Amino acid sequence: MPVATRAVLVGLACSLAGTLPFNLLGGANLLFGASVPWSVPLVAGYLWIYSHARGAAERVTGLETALDDPWFWILGCLALVSGAAMVWAFARLAALKRAERTSAALA
Predict the structure, then answer these.
(1) What is the dihedral of CA 12, 18, 20, 23, to 10 degrees?
(2) Count of CA atoms in the C-beta half-sphere (13 A) of 28
């Protein structure tokens, strides 16, 4: 299997390993006993274990040197801000479309 394909698959697996349990536990918390956030300690424990396992992988792969580079953090923050701006823009467009449909229905 080519290196690029393996890299994409490993990245997808790591992303799913970090987010899927949170989504499942959060959804279960909403369905069963939403008045008490019982999934929060479980997710916190899982993320603690996940972050320590990721730290071990960083030591093996040499990613810890990339974390010291300021450009790593600058580009990461830029990606975060641009993603938030895109979400905000799509929310505004959806609100405009919803208002347009409402005004058309009233006319």
Answers:
(1) -140
(2) 11
Largest Cα span, the chain: 65
For the chain, give the number of residues: 107
What pTM, to 2 d.p., does this model score?
Answer: 0.44
Q: Which residue type sits at 79? A: A
* pLDDT digits 0-9 by tens, 57-86: 556 555 556 667 788 778 888 988 998 899
Amino acid residing at 73: W
Q: Show the CA angle centred on residue 20, arms to residues 14 and 26, nearest 5°.
A: 145
pLDDT of 24 over the 80 cut = yes
Rg (CA), the chain: 20
**For residue 84, which phi and psi values (nearest 5 degrees)?**
-65, -40
Whole-number Å distance between alpha carbons of 66 and 58: 9
